[in-house]
Design brief:
The chain is an alpha+beta fold. 49% of the residues lie in helices and 16% in strands. The protein is built from four helices and three strands; from the N terminus they run H-H-H-H-E-E-E.
Amino acid sequence: MKNRKQRSFQPTRFQRRNRQGAALVDFAIAAPLFFALIFTAFEITRVNQLRNTAEIAATEGARRGIIPGASAAECVAVATAEMTAVGTTQFTVAVTPTAIAANTPTVEVSVTVPLDVRNGYFLTNLFAGGRITKSITLERER
């Protein structure tokens, strides 16, 4: 009687053989979902970083343009430096007006970043066709 109780808790050799690949099957099902979630989180974080950097670049470019004696080329240079600091490969900086004169009332700097090129980390098609556009308008100093 004592032997039977001890044997009933131990799986037989046949039961162990049937469960050998269960962990591998569980991993094969769960791993792609887990990695897809991780890579998607990285891409969403990158898009958020690009959005914030585009806003900062537009603001810094406009701040450069409101100073007396500034030029549109200086605005573009400052915005470009901000965007390249985070590794952005393709973007567009537009300054309105294209020629800043002494009597220009406002300066607008617009930064556009396409999301379907190499601006992402892994899943560049996740936001295919998307575009981030940030625009800042500031009054000039007199």
